[in-house]
Design a protein that fits this description.
The structure is a homodimer of 237-residue chains. Chain A is mainly α and 237 residues long. Chain A is 82% helix and 0% strand.
Chain lengths: 237, 237
């Protein structure tokens, strides 16, 4: 009996160290989102370069998490709930890695946008989107640590706001491009950035669903409304 | 000794059923890529709708794979190599699910593109890209089944061709839009599709890297050349 107790707490310690890694990774990704958006708004190529370089550390942390998780599974042979936690953490880490990639891509486009004429209003809108996604990510990580499905559910709903911001920007960019062909290149890059932030929101949403699954054992209903409707836009309104 | 033999072959059977699932999923994703590109080229809204609906089955298969993998880990408690195989399969499944999402998105845009004027040459180019990605995926799955790192390495190299096709299209779309503002909306959607196919290629590349890791125990060198350079394009040439 005492032996079992000992094994259980060793697993708990392992799990805590894995959770600490995911929180560290999450913090780095949050910073990448904000710093990426800020360096874009400032057209600060040097700050953007720092975000790009920082992505390597995020990738390395995901590798470390994968190895650590494999090690824990191998030596502790967890089952049921414990195993579910570890497999969920791996999926969270994979989503974080992808969000980091999108932040890197945003930073990458800063250098070319620095050479082009700014598009009125777009920087502020992109920064708002990025800040909202970063807030959603922070709350998702909190919901994960506290196994709080309610907070994770709120995140799911908030993703619609991000989608709406993206829809508005998509139409704005189309209008800009039609009015002024010289704005086309800048709008294409800005539009990509907007889409990438919208995708970050989708990834955070996936993470929040994982957290709900982890806390309740069930995935949330699939039929929550989809916010990005631009795939159907034939003309800007 | 006999007991151990028995356990080992039970694991092998489990592993085979997991591999069969991933191959089934891979086949469905290959079909989604080809059918998505074909229905786009034909502006066949009904065929596109079928691709969209088919994505649910791909998602369900990923869920099934996750559950099956968790079950096998729980009852067989695999270590070292066996565990690595199962964790790799989960990552392959996650990549397949994302490729399926991109195919679904391509199909989604078919209905709006059916209402717009076609952009000369773009359909054939997108079909070529899609076919190349599907070939890469088929070879990656073959390399997985046969644990063939050589074939997986070839896939890594071929992704550059996909990137180059995307670069050429990106410049073409910019030129079209500047020459004719009425082409802007169609070009925006087509460009998204091109970018999504390019991302499918990146995901297949990630899968090929996983296969190499699985076959050799090492990830391939990180510094293979990146083919998509459009983040730096300020003006079409």
């Amino acid at each position: 009996m005492q032996e079992k107790q000992h094994i259980a707490s060793a697993f708990d310690r392992d799990l805590e160290s894995i959770q600490a890694l995911i929180l560290k990774m999450g913090g780095m990704v949050e910073a990448a989102i904000l710093d990426g958006a800020q360096s874009l708004a400032d057209r600060d190529v040097e700050a953007a370069e720092k975000v790009r370089r920082g992505d390597k550390a995020i990738d390395a942390l995901e590798e470390q998490l994968n190895e650590e998780a494999a090690r824990v599974i191998a030596i502790r042979a967890p089952v049921s709930r414990d195993l579910r936690v570890i497999l969920s953490v791996l999926r969270l880490a994979a989503s974080l890695e992808r969000i980091g990639d999108y932040a890197k891509n945003m930073a990458k486009r800063t250098s070319v946008l620095a050479e082009l004429h700014p598009i009125e209003g777009s920087d502020a809108a992109l920064k708002r989107m990025a800040r909202e996604v970063q807030n959603m990510l922070r709350d998702t990580l909190d919901a994960f640590v506290n196994r709080d499905p309610g907070l994770a559910h709120e995140v799911l709903l908030r993703d619609q706001e991000v989608d709406q911001m993206y829809n508005a920007l998509f139409r704005e960019f189309l209008t800009h491009m039609m009015e002024d062909p010289r704005a086309i290149t800048a709008c294409m890059h800005l539009h990509f950035i907007a889409k990438n932030i919208e995708r970050m929101g989708d990834l955070v949403t996936n993470m929040a669903e994982q957290v709900i699954y982890l806390a309740t054992g069930k995935m949330p209903d699939e039929d929550r409304p989809k916010g990005d409707t631009t795939a159907y836009v034939a003309q800007p309104e």
